[in-house]
Amino acid sequence: MSGSDDINPLVRIERENGIAVITLSNPEKGNALSVDMAEALLLRVEEAAEDSTIRSVLMTAEGRFFCVGGDVRSIGAAGDDVGALLDRITTPLHRAIETLLHMEKPLVVAVNGPVAGGGLGLAAVGDIVLASEAAHFSMAYAGIGFSPDGAATWLLPRLIGLRRTQELAYANRRLTSAEAASLGLVTRSVPDKDLRQEGREMAERLARGPVGAFAAARRLLLSSDCATAKAQMDLEARSVRAQAMGAEGREGVSAFLGKRQPEFAALP
Known about the structure:
Strand order of the largest sheet: 1-2-3-4-6-9
Number of strands: 9
Order of helices and strands: EEHEHHEEHEEHHEHEHHHH
CATH superfamily of the largest domain: 2-enoyl-CoA Hydratase, Chain A, domain 1
CATH class of the largest domain: Alpha Beta
Radius of gyration: 19 Å
Distance between the termini: 37 Å
Shape: globular
CATH topology of the largest domain: 2-enoyl-CoA Hydratase, Chain A, domain 1
Low-confidence stretches: 1-5
Structural class: alpha/beta
Number of domains: 2
């Protein structure tokens, strides 16, 4: 398919020093989520998730926009076939987001510009989300009579609360980068000129860290809103026991007692 064409890819992947950088690369169309773009994204995300040499993932985009959401022109041209077209977009898009949520390595998202629609889920799914000052965020669905997708109705209430999500969904309120940071939609807002460097530095920092412990924390955080306090603490007890008995825990304790920096990335 054209979305996975390595000569002119819609989504690029680069690997270096244990980091996979996934870049949305269709700037002429604002990195809109066409069928080919969604399929290419899934392909790249699965490559990064399944590559055992990759310890952290950085996702960003090329051009002025991070992702404008769905390709509305294509949607409009689909006529009575619009339902089938949306199925072909949301199926790979949602599989990609699910993989990003559950993969055994941390995810940094560097949001380089405006985000709307389905792009919002891609921006929000990161463990660490850095947004350039040029970025702004809107759900945008109501403007064309659509309801949200891309995990927006799962991610946003967890991150910013139900009331704020309702306002974004119904009133189409646009959040600036600073507002997104203050509400907790993103980790922090950074100057445009510093975004790529800070994103890369964060991905490198996480790649040097205890990736197994990060994966365990990811699992615990994902389960925290649907478990009782006792059930969650039981999960925590089993998880911390396993980490303490494993290579990362032993290295971390040894480094602490020996007053040295742990070398998690060197572990087999």
